[in-house]
Amino acid sequence: MNDFMQDLRVNSGFGGIVLSPVGSQCVSKEDYNLIKRKGLAVVDCSWARLSDVPFVKLRCGAPRLLPWLVAANPVNYGRPCELSCVEALSAALLICGEEETANLLLGKFKWGHAFLSLNRELLKAYSECENSADIISVQNSWLSQQRQVPKVPPDAAEGASNDSEDEEGSSNDSEDGLPPLERNMNHLSLQESDDESE
């Protein structure tokens, strides 16, 4: 991966696009030329320790957010918006039209294809958007459709979460080694937490 990536200090300065929670707009096709010229970076930190990262020291003219996507990495599988660095970079590349590079990055991880599978429809929709506003519109439309899904009884949700932890090759896995996507309950969990906050 050294051919593709290098480490930078937070205060080093970076002229390209940086995927960061302090961005004010989503990465989109509008960012493609800047990514081609100056590159794409991600802030490598734990979701649990975001408050410890000195984002004010980040010297970058183009911080960007990612739209709503679901993690497939083993630590955060099925959790929305808790992507690993490689998932974040690959998502941005896919959104901007760099499918080959994104696939190359994800191919380095045995779970990489799961990220594409879990987010296939959304990534396709995002990649067809021309700008950040279009992406936000697609995201919001998607999320409102997901909230209309009927709730599943708690015992069914528990069974589904156990399926995602099965070992490879179990009889519950689909042909490509992924858990069946129709049992992914992350959208329903999001809905339930929204209902509780009302």
Q: What would you say this structure looks like, in words?
A:
Strands 2-1-3 form a 3-stranded parallel β-sheet. The chain is globular, with a radius of gyration of 17 Å. Helix 2 runs parallel beside helix 4 (112-127) and helix 4 (112-127) packs across helix 5. Helices cover 40% and strands 7% of the residues. It has helices at residues 32-38, 85-95, 99-106, 112-127, 132-146, 154-163, 186-197; strands spanning 14-19, 40-42, 60-64.
Structural class assignment: mainly alpha
The average pLDDT is 74
Shape: globular
Unreliable stretches (pLDDT < 50, length at least 5) are 156-198
SSE topology string: EHEEHHHHHH
Number of helices: 7
* Percent range of helical residues: 25-40%
* Lateral arrangement of strands in the main beta sheet: 2-1-3
CA distance, first residue to last residue: 45 Å
Cα-based radius of gyration, to the nearest Å: 17 Å
| Number of strand segments | 3
Tell me the major beta sheet: 3 strands, parallel
Amount of beta strand: 5-15%
Biased composition (Acidic residues): 163-176
Keywords: Cytoplasm, Ribosome biogenesis, rRNA processing, S-adenosyl-L-methionine, Transferase
InterPro entries: Tsr3-like (IPR022968), Tsr3_C (IPR007177)
Protein name: 16S/18S rRNA aminocarboxypropyltransferase Tsr3 C-terminal domain-containing protein
